[in-house]
Amino acid sequence: MAVYTEVSDEAVAEFVSEYDLGGIVAFRGIAEGVENSNYSLKTTHGDYILTLYERRVAPEDLPWFLGLMEHLAEHAIPAPRPVPGRDGESLRRLAGRYAAITTFLPGVWPRRVRQLHCAPLGEALARLHLAGAGYAPERANALGPEAWPRLLSASTPGGDAVRVGLIGELEKALGRILAGWPGRLPRGHIHADLFPDNVFFLEGKISGLIDFYFAATDLYAYDVAVCLNAWCFEPDFSCNVTKARALLGAYEAVRPLSAAERAALPVLCQGAAMRFLLTRLYDWLNTPDGALVTRKDPIEYLRRLNFHLEARDEHAYGI
Amino acid sequence: MAVYTEVSDEAVAEFVSEYDLGGIVAFRGIAEGVENSNYSLKTTHGDYILTLYERRVAPEDLPWFLGLMEHLAEHAIPAPRPVPGRDGESLRRLAGRYAAITTFLPGVWPRRVRQLHCAPLGEALARLHLAGAGYAPERANALGPEAWPRLLSASTPGGDAVRVGLIGELEKALGRILAGWPGRLPRGHIHADLFPDNVFFLEGKISGLIDFYFAATDLYAYDVAVCLNAWCFEPDFSCNVTKARALLGAYEAVRPLSAAERAALPVLCQGAAMRFLLTRLYDWLNTPDGALVTRKDPIEYLRRLNFHLEARDEHAYGI
Predict the structure, then answer these.
(1) Structural domain that includes position A179
(2) Is B296 on the interface with A (CB under 8 A)?
(3) Quick one: which H or E segment has residue A177?
(4) Contact B124/B209 with Cβ under 8 angstroms?
(5) Which H/E stretch holds residue B214?
(6) Closest Cα of chain A to B150: distance in Å?
(7) Contact residues on chain A for B107, CB-CB shorter than 8 A
(8) Which residues of B touch A8 (CB under 8 A)?
(9) Residue B288 distance to chain A (closest CA, Å)
(10) Average pLDDT of A142-154?
(11) For the whole model, what pTM was predicted?
(12) Half-sphere exposure (CA, 13 Å, Cβ side) for B122?
């Protein structure tokens, strides 16, 4: 669920009056999203999304995120476009939070990933990577490999209560991942969290890519690895090679992977599984009872990690 | 939060294809509502709400609720109107649940109740009572006074851990309430849960009354008492007599209360406070850790109950 901050009707009316968006017709909390509070805002001009940035998003990063979204939208990527107020400013304050209005994107995110979703996703990811290249400012990936040892240490007390031997298993895997991590692959702006609930489809085509608040400047092929983890595993945690092949083939039709990127896919996939495993484990151990957030099971990513640790080369992913 | 049941994109597309609503443009979970799963559904024809009925709603009651909403919408009450499929049926099945599409109502619910909301609310409640009179079928109030002793017993183990002496205090109050409960006041269909999050305002006027899934056939003045509890107390739990007077005055301009109804206001308000106190207490004690539902503090209603127990007559509410 994703309404952490309630906004009074007076406050939202005053906020919207600073835009050329007409009058408010409706204002409803959206159940989706995890990090921020999201509202569906309908005005006499149309549909918009109002996001209030919660404490997990660093305020100093917000201009970078909004700038990237603006840049991508200008370059034919279906990303939410920040809507400026009459003063030209799209990053504003509301109810004690930073807040922004963005355009509404149509479509439905796939609750159950099917093979037919994977090629459009791969193509959209490659187009996102190419389009992002013109956006000059960089942002270090705060949840990249440098962060993983610290995240693992933070979960060491309590981690073995989630699963016996878990921390030792992760320490060993993390050592192997960091030792094999590729330093010199092509890099640029990546989404870094392109899970199915961040991708809208309409009539078989991608109509929206949302939630750029983990985006960063990092290895393109790591973003591919995040998507392989998020889109190509079945409910029993087996890797669906047909889906992986569809995703990778469509990606490569737009942006071919280098031989080094292909060869690095297993370790990149291990790293991507590790990243989501570690943040889920941390949240699992640190979410207070009764909190509004749904805790996600970290062990799902241990299952994926173990698949990737056994992958001998990129052929494990159908290519 | 209110998405308990996730619906696959294929399932929702198939479901919507049974209606004359055009193609799906968007489908998003709504954060509001507590009992059921609610989705905002945009089609090429417009905006709708798709509700999946969860286990707390008795399936046999659904035709009554939908029939009442239809009747009210036909009689100029801004209630959601059930939308039938091409076969004429509005109550259908989706993702293993009963489900219905209703019309979208514009407006914003007041996160902070101000005096200016209370007269429109009182007037709308009276109009709802009058309009409902033409709907013949009845539904007993499953959370009416007959249910309270059972609800209190269900919370007796554990109740004193919420607050020392709570159960004894409630037993004494409940005895007094039931002894003084008025049996012969005017009755009809009541909303029974008309809290601020169920009432949309647009430019100072009421544009929507939603969530009829606690509606029942019971005392009209009890519905007034529910609203006094829900709309006329300040964050410090003091009763705002100006708000109460505005609510009651506007109600009476449409449907005057009889002398007996006025005289019964204190005990009806005690009963309404008891009803929400008891269901919140039960949920407080029985919501598993990590559940998606936000538990609401039962003690807020103990504070209201104590106000009503001290009310000597209807003048306590500003009339």
Answers:
(1) 115-317
(2) no
(3) helix A166-180
(4) yes
(5) none
(6) 26
(7) 25-26
(8) 110-112
(9) 9
(10) 96
(11) 0.89
(12) 25
